[in-house]
């Protein structure tokens, strides 16, 4: 059984994780007409905004209540109310997603009561705009928890409760934060190929896919509509991707009776086969020929690629669910997990990571554990460690700011698994060193003893 090693250092060295508020804002960005609002100081918002812009290379709608010293001491309810009203007046969002920060959480503000009072007092002014709250202190958790809390808040605050008439072709999908824009787009196409109608929450493929609108839009554009969130209870089935999305699915089931099926990873042949079988069972349709063809392509890629993976040592630093996704992928290809580092030790998925131990820590821990590894797998902040160790780096997760197109890389289903195999195998091939004659024959330059040099056999 894997050992979960807690962090014992008093300071992070080259931090691995990003904060809960950032994860919550990320989820809100997957809703059409949304505006994430950080309830805290300007600095918290500015830092998250920089990371988003560097990663996506896009304009990101993100606002702050801009609490100052006085508000920090006396309370930020007035700042929160004014910020919500200003956003409603100036940007007319369909959804305002409030993400609390360490400033208000440490102070102990009752943000939920504040928002309830604001919605009651300003009901007429806020008509047409949903306001939901995710309690996301910076000092606890990471992106996973923030993303899941935001999705939970949207389901609790917007979805119509109670048993409703089911639409037999409608499926609710709750994807994990680690799915890229391309992943979610490909996921939708796969579900639609079975004649089903997916409603994905959040859907960053519609809002962060790099398209440019023909006019200035101050909020998100594209993504899950508020109306679709409201009608999630009419889905016949909920599909959940990632252990951290289990709680939002449980909330949806409790409110509406919609049952869920959890996939801890959609990378790898076995998990995707299970997913495809489920879609076929729900739709009553045979697996489309195009899906079968992509499966055959993955089988061929597995055959071609496993020669390059066998015996390789991999060092991974990622959020728990992404760590599990990548570790199981590499193990399935015949590699060994030499080091596994994650951001938080609370996720149950860590117990299933195929490694001897998982260190809760930072990129400094990864560097210390990865000296014998053949490949480092983490986000762009791991590039210095890779350079110092002389090990190639595969960039995954958030943020990836020193490469273009990270959000358009597939990592799931048959095609995404195939692409991952090719990407990693090509990294190994590009960094392999041809053996020298000395390495092949260690006796090549060995000095011959004098008694052998003078023998008749040596002369001939």
Architecture overview:
There is one protein chain. The protein has 460 residues and is of the alpha/beta class. It folds into 3 domains: 20-140, Nitrogenase molybdenum iron protein domain (Rossmann fold, 3-Layer(aba) Sandwich), CATH 3.40.50.1980; 167-288, Nitrogenase molybdenum iron protein domain (Rossmann fold); 295-430, 3-Layer(aba) Sandwich (Rossmann fold), CATH 3.40.50. 43% of the residues lie in helices and 15% in strands. The chain is built from 19 helices and 14 strands. It has helices spanning 20-28, 42-56, 69-74, 77-90, 102-107, 111-121, 143-158, 181-192, 226-230, 246-256, 269-283, 289-309, 320-332, 363-369, 383-389, 413-430, 437-440, 450-453, 456-459; strands at residues 3-5, 34-39, 63-64, 95-100, 130-134, 167-174, 197-200, 235-241, 260-263, 313-317, 336-342, 357-360, 375-378, 393-395. Strands 1-12-11-10-13-14 form a 6-stranded parallel β-sheet, sandwiched between helices. A 4-stranded parallel β-sheet has the order 3-2-4-5, sandwiched between helices. Strands 7-6-8-9 form a 4-stranded parallel β-sheet, sandwiched between helices. Helix 2 links the parallel strand 2 (34-39) and strand 3. Helix 7 (143-158) runs parallel beside helix 10. The radius of gyration is 25 Å and the shape is globular. The termini are far apart. Residues 436-460 are annotated as: Disordered. Keywords: Nitrogen fixation.
Q: Return the CATH architecture of the largest domain.
A: 3-Layer(aba) Sandwich
Largest sheet: 6 strands, parallel
N-to-C CA distance: 62 Å
Mean pLDDT: 92
Under CATH, the topology of the largest domain is which? Rossmann fold
- What's the number of domains? 3
Q: What is the overall shape?
A: globular
Q: Tell me the β content.
A: 5-15%
CATH class of the largest domain: Alpha Beta
What is the CATH superfamily label of the largest domain?
Nitrogenase molybdenum iron protein domain
Number of H- or I-type helical stretches: 19
């Amino acid at each position: 059984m894997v050992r979960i090693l807690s962090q014992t250092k008093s300071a992070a060295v080259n931090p691995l994780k990003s904060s809960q508020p950032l994860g919550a804002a990320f989820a809100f960005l997957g809703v059409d007409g949304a505006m994430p609002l950080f309830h805290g100081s300007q600095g918290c918002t500015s830092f998250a905004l920089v990371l988003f812009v560097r990663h996506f290379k896009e304009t990101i709608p993100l606002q702050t209540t801009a609490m100052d010293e006085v508000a920090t001491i006396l309370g930020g309810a007035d700042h929160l109310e004014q910020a919500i009203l200003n956003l409603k007046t100036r940007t007319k969002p369909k959804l305002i997603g409030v993400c609390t920060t360490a400033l208000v959480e440490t102070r102990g503000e009752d943000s939920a009561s504040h928002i309830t009072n604001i919605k009651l007092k300003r009901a007429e002014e806020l008509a047409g705009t949903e306001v939901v709250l995710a309690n996301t202190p910076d000092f606890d958790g990471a992106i996973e928890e923030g993303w899941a809390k935001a999705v939970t808040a949207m389901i609790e605050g917007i979805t119509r409760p109670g048993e409703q008439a089911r639409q037999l072709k409608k499926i609710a999908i709750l994807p994990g934060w680690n799915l890229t824009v391309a992943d979610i787009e490909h996921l939708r196409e796969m579900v639609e190929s079975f004649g089903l109608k997916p409603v994905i929450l959040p859907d960053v493929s519609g809002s962060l896919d790099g398209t440019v609108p023909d006019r200035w839009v101050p909020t998100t554009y594209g993504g899950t509509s508020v109306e679709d969130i409201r009608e999630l209870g009419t889905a016949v089935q909920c599909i959940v991707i990632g252990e951290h999305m289990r709680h939002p699915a449980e909330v949806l089931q409790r409110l509406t009776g919609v049952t869920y099926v959890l996939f801890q990873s959609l990378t790898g042949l076995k998990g995707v086969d299970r997913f495809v079988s489920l879609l076929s069972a729900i739709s009553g349709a045979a697996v489309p020929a195009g899906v079968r063809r992509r499966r055959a392509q993955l089988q061929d890629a597995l055959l071609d690629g496993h020669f390059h993976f066998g015996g390789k040592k991999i060092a991974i630093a990622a959020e728990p669910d992404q760590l599990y996704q990548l570790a199981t992928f590499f193990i399935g290809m015949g590699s060994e997990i030499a080091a596994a580092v994650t951001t938080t030790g609370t996720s149950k998925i860590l117990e299933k990571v195929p490694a001897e131990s998982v260190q809760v820590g930072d990129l400094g821990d990864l560097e210390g554990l990865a000296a014998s590894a053949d490949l480092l797998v983490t986000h762009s902040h791991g590039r210095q460690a890779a350079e110092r160790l002389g090990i190639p780096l595969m960039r995954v997760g958030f943020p990836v700011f020193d490469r273009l197109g990270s959000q358009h890389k597939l990592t799931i289903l048959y095609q995404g698994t195939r692409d991952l195999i090719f990407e990693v195998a090509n990294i190994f091939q590009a960094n392999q060193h041809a053996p020298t004659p000395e390495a092949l024959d260690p006796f090549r330059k060995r000095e011959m003893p004098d008694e052998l040099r003078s023998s008749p056999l040596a002369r001939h």
